[in-house]
Amino acid sequence: MTTQKSAPRRSGILLHPTSLPGPYGIGDLGPCARSFIDFLAEAGQQLWQVMPLGPTGFGDSPYQCFSAFAGNHYLISLDELEAQGLLTRAELAQCPPFPRERVDYGPVITFHLAMLRKAYQRFSADATPAQRAELEAFARAHRSWLDDYALFMACKDAHDGRLWSEWSTGKNHITQPPFQVSTDDLNFHRFLQYEFFRQWDALRRYAHTHNIRIIGDMPIFVAYDSADVWAHPQLFYLDEAGRMTVVAGVPPDYFSATGQLWGNPLYRWDACRQEKFRWWIERFRHALTMVDIVRIDHFRGFESCWAVPAGNPTAEIGEWLKTPGDELFATLRTTLGPVPLIAEDLGVITPEVEALRDKYGFPGMKILQFGFGGDAQNEFLPHNYPRHCVVYTGSHDNDTSLGWYRSADEKTRDHVRRYFMCDGSDISWVMIRAALASVAELAIIPLQDVLSLDSTARMNFPGRPEGNWQWRYVPEQLTSSVASRLRELTELYGRISTSTSEPQPTPSSSNPSLTHVP
Which pTM does this prediction carry? Predict the structure, then answer.
């Protein structure tokens, strides 16, 4: 078992970039993202946690992306494209009057695609030799996934976005494409990825100059309608027609009495092993070029996963299938060195899952909202935390703390009031104080709680297929008084760095604990 060293106490905010403000209907990687980083620095925070950054598909969920490697092109800043001369102010002035406090995805997608197409056409016509060389260098560096992704997206475009199984020819579709797509179609998607990663890299560097590191999010499973499954069908449980035979989910739990039926394809781990986990190694390698710490969603699935027969209406019926997580993480460590991970270890957690987590020194998660309504032994109550963990007041799947408290039964509310010796009138900040005061090495607070927002600001309702991922804040909500209040508590509980910079991890480091996270 890995021996843990004392790690610096740090804190940060959970906010997906789609929730940033801005005039174009959805948050992006431009000026408002930099303003948010400025707010984090003013508030004494050292971490910004985001959700998966991939191109979203069904339900606009960042956990159902068209690629485990590509970036979401709707996050590309149109203002940055104008600054490059790829869009004009007159073109951006055609922007519809989008709502400020939520993302209306349909109109947003229509407008952004039109602007991105204009930018691509202008780049194609007017790019300098140096710019073209830079794009070509990007394409070469990312060829392991970019060519498949561009072909997949071009094919989807030609088929009005339909599932790949409705237009592909089966497991030989890569060597025998269903039809020809133009070079221009492929280059459009390569250009979008080039722009996304150029802007994201610049934003991450800006965060680093403010001593802020980024926590990313890696769902264990990928979407069925993705370039990953399309290009690597041998790694998944599919029949000869490319249809899923079993799907992912979890049995009944805290979130749902009928379980959660995610519907993702399950991995053929024997095939992954035969390929020496090559796809997984590239996935982690790529993730660590984008973020500083990786949160693994559903870490439990690396010990065993819940397999539901395809076509079942709920996740109540299924079986646990063993998975070779130990072998995978050993291979990752040998290939990449210590990988800074956070294990989302919520739900049905067995001693085997805990042993896997602890063997590689990954901190687990504690959700403060889960601690109340029971007895003093509840593992989510702060007095039971180990030091080596990450505490959240709530996650993207929870209600806001204010909404949670208001909707809780009286037994739970009474427990909260007695535990914190409060009257519940400022519950969001009571919870924030408890998280920051805890022994947990890292404390992450959803921005909705920092702003004391109610259930209308909730990000996701597990099991609800539509109407999620829409919340946005407006610029005037990030006041200096809010930053000052958060900074005061962060200082009080020893979560502000005393140094101006932190060392980068080295390949020779032998301890993957958060002591060595960059």
Answer: 0.93
Q: How far apart are CA 151 and CA 168, in angstroms?
A: 12
Judge contact between 135 and 190, C-beta under 8 A: yes
Q: Which of 209, 226, 217 is nearest to 263 (CA)?
A: 226
Q: Whole-angstrom Cα distance, residue 187 to residue 177?
A: 17
Torsion sign over Cα 197, 203, 209, 212 = negative
Contact call for residues 48 and 12 (beta carbons, < 8 A): yes
Catalytic residue flag (residue 253): no
Tally Cβ neighbours within 10 Å of residue 314: 17
Distance, in Å, from the CA atom of 66 to the CA atom of 152, rounded to the nearest integer, reads 9
Point out the catalytic residue in the list 60, 195, 217, 344. 344
- Range among 31-45, 242-256, 337-351, 489-503 rated most confident: 31-45
As a three-state string, the secondary structure of 203-219 is: HHHHHHHCCCEEEEEEE
364, β-bridge pairs: 389
Task: Kindly compute the dihedral angle of the four CA atoms of residues 336, 337, 340, 346, in this order, to the nearest 10 degrees.
Answer: 80
Distance CA 65, CA 84 (A): 28
Q: Which residue has the higher pLDDT, 349 or 402?
A: 402
φ, ψ for residue 204, nearest 5 deg: -65, -40
How far the first Cα of the chain sits from its last, in Å, is 22
Q: What are phi and psi of 213, to 5 degrees?
A: -105, 155
CB within 8 Å of 476: residues ≥ 6 apart: none
> What is the per-residue pLDDT across 370-429, written as a single tens digit (0 to 9) for each?
999 999 999 999 999 999 999 999 999 999 999 999 999 999 999 999 999 999 999 999
Asked whether the predicted pLDDT for residue 257 surpasses 90, the reply is no
Q: Which 3 state secondary structure label does DSSP give 281? A: helix
Residue 23, C-beta contacts closer than 8 angstroms, at least 6 positions apart? 95, 98
Token pair for 333: 């460590």
Catalytic residue (choose from 60, 297, 399, 449): 297
Q: Is 101 designated active site?
A: no
Q: Could you tell me the pLDDT band of residue 500, with boundaries at 50, 70 and 90? A: very low
Active site residue 344: yes
CA dist 368 and 346 (Å) reads 12
Residue pLDDT, tens place only, 114-154: 999 999 999 999 999 999 999 999 999 999 999 999 999 99
Out of 397, 399, 441, 449, the active site residue is 397
What type of residue is 470? Q
- Tokens for 199, please give them: 């802007």
Tallying the residues shown for the chain, one arrives at 518
3-state secondary structure of 322: strand
